[in-house]
Amino acid sequence: FNMKVVGFDVRQSQELTNSLGFSYLPLQELLKTADIVTIHVPYSQETHHLINKDNIFLIRKGALLVNTSRGAVVETDALFQAITQDHLGGAALDVLESEGELKEEAELLSNGKLNAEKAKSVLENHILIDLPNVIITPHMAFYTKEAEESIMETTTNNIKGVLAGTPQNIVNP
Does the keyword Glycosyltransferase feature in the UniProt annotation (predicted)? Predict the structure, then answer.
């Protein structure tokens, strides 16, 4: 595609940069230079609102934002402002910050759990869903043949490891 690929990660890997042919940049520099910003991070305290009102307008005007990680990695209000003010050229989202509230709107209204912040986020999500330059998928961007094969391989290896007395991928509380 004759493009330069850059990335940001708090844990940089020289092995990855060598094998995949990209370079690391600080987040603010990446946002200022990338035409397409794609986000693929786990959700944690460190990644909560990684893209937010303080940095979303650093993204180049007309650039695209893709989020396939978790909804709360991108602050809904910041995304809403950047899209509706025509700063971003568009967004592709496999997740929304308040997607749980979108499913349970009637319950939220009937039991009084809808505070002002949640109400604003739900409303902004509804507007984002209908914008022509926003694509939203039903939280299934992982669903590829390769992803299914990887899940199957990991599961098989985990079972073999347990049976052999050498469990892998252990998650302890």
Answer: no
Locate tokens 């004759």: which residue? 2
Contacts of 59 (CB under 8 A, 6+ apart): 31, 32, 34, 37, 65, 82, 87, 88
Instruction: Give per-residue pLDDT as tens, 18-44.
Output: 888 888 899 999 999 999 999 988 888
Q: Please pick, among 49, 60, 87, 139, the residue that the annotation labels catalytic.
A: 139
48 labelled catalytic: no
Could you identify the residue written with the tokens 């844990």? 11
pTM of the complete model: 0.71
Task: Give yes or no: 139 in active site.
Answer: yes
CB 73 within 8 A of CB 99: no
CATH number of 35-141: 3.40.50.720
Q: Is-catalytic flag, 40?
A: no
Which position among 75, 97, 99, 124 bears the catalytic label? Answer: 99
How many CB atoms lie under 10 A from the CB of residue 58? 14
Distance CA 76, CA 95 (A): 11
